[in-house]
Design a protein that fits this description.
seven-stranded parallel sheet, single chain, six-stranded parallel sheet, 40% helix, alpha/beta
Length: 389
């Protein structure tokens, strides 16, 4: 069997989609080594893979400009001979490492795949964000250190011009923008989120409301239906946004589970009885109980909602979220509203629109059923083994 090296970045949205692949490769008898930050050791080791921390130590990735050289140097420091490299598309020096090691590589997209047709539809804001991130993670000293060329020194040029023989896309093809423009070297995968529950931490979380102050499980059986779930991730969630949600949904004829992220629930004061605010929410569990998801439309959140058949209200603010939210609306899987200009009334009305739309409910269920006929992790493993043959 093969010895396979996986390199990834210390961001949960990029790590989580690779866990089923790592586990499937291990089950097929391959030896899998996985480079990442120490905080992901537990999740990675649950797959059966051998965890390798960044060479510069557990804190190297806390400084954004050091993430890439830390991962790069760690890969080249290994004494073991690897047969294949698998790397996240955002870690675009992956092809350079494969070149140095003299082995083939496989690229994994943790979001919709990019090609010229899709990039041509990108807004100036999207491109500007990518350029800003690129400048942050790949300053000139990193480019020189890794010996990158004009084709792989920026993420856009790397994605378009530095393509390996196999690209695994952890997004259902039925949801991919311009899916018809992708050739056979792209393997689309509908991830098995039921299995991912076993890999992603489900620590205790705290609820604060008039009726609920104890640590413990979310009391779905005691909630008034329908149930709305609100989570915009940690980057945008703010006290003002959470207050807007409380004003929009408080004391209404429904229940709301809110992920407060970095905002302590206690900071929100006394909550209406129908509002359940948590600083940590086990999202894969919650999505199996709710009727609509108010989301920033990050790749993982969107895919999880599709898998569990939950219609969405998209409130995108960065990167691929705009594409995902537009696709949700275009495919009739929900609606989208402005994260900046939508007030309490607009937010409430958008949720009601989704809850009351028979078309949205039917389209969401149809998409959920379509995922059963999509590519699987096992299909991706088969493609990898063909590459190794």
């Amino acid at each position: 069997m093969a010895s396979i090296l996986i390199i990834n970045l210390p961001w949960s949205g990029h790590v989580a989609p690779t866990l089923p692949l790592a586990e499937a490769l291990v089950k097929r008898g391959h030896k899998v080594s996985y480079i990442n930050a120490e905080e992901y050791r537990g999740q990675i080791e649950k797959t059966g893979a051998h965890f390798i921390p960044y060479q510069e130590g557990a804190m190297a990735h806390k400084k954004t400009g050091k993430i890439y050289p830390a991962a790069y140097d760690t890969a080249l420091f290994q004494d073991e001979k690897f047969d294949l490299l698998i790397y996240d598309f955002f870690f675009f020096p992956g092809t350079r490492i494969a070149e140095i090691l003299g082995i083939p590589s496989v690229r994994v997209f943790s979001q919709m795949a990019w090609n010229k047709q899709r990039i041509s539809q990108a807004t100036p804001y999207f491109v500007l964000c990518l350029l800003a991130v690129n400048a942050l993670v790949m300053p000139k000293r990193n480019v020189k250190h890794m010996g990158l060329t004009k084709n792989n020194r920026t993420i856009i040029r790397s994605v378009l011009l530095d393509k390996p023989a196999l690209n695994i896309v952890n997004v259902p093809k039925a949801f991919q923008v311009k899916s018809e423009t992708y050739s056979d070297d792209y393997q689309f995968v509908a991830l098995p989120y039921d299995d991912l529950v076993d890999h992603i931490s489900s620590d205790d979380y705290v609820a604060t409301s008039v009726s609920q102050t104890n640590r413990g499980r979310i009391p779905y059986d005691k909630m008034k239906l329908p149930i709305v779930y609100v989570s915009l991730g940690s980057m945008y969630t703010s006290k003002s946004f959470l207050k807007k949600c409380i004003g929009a949904f408080g004391n209404k004829d429904l229940s709301v589970v809110i992920n407060t992220a970095k905002v302590p629930p206690a900071a929100l004061g006394e909550l209406p009885d129908n509002i359940y605010a948590y600083s940590y929410v086990p999202q894969l569990e919650v999505l199996q109980h709710v009727d609509v998801f108010v989301t920033h439309c990050g790749a993982n959140s969107t895919n999880e909602a599709l898998y569990f058949g939950v219609p969405m209200v998209g409130m995108p603010y960065l990167f691929d979220q705009e594409f995902n939210a537009n696709q949700v609306k275009r495919l009739g899987l929900g609606t989208r509203i402005s994260i900046v200009f939508s007030g309490k009334k607009r937010l409430y009305n958008a949720v009601q629109e989704v809850l009351q739309s028979k078309t949205i409910q039917e389209q969401t269920k149809a998409m959920q059923n379509r995922l059963k006929d999509e590519g699987t992790v096992e299909d991706a493993v088969a493609r990898i083994e063909d590459l190794l043959a």
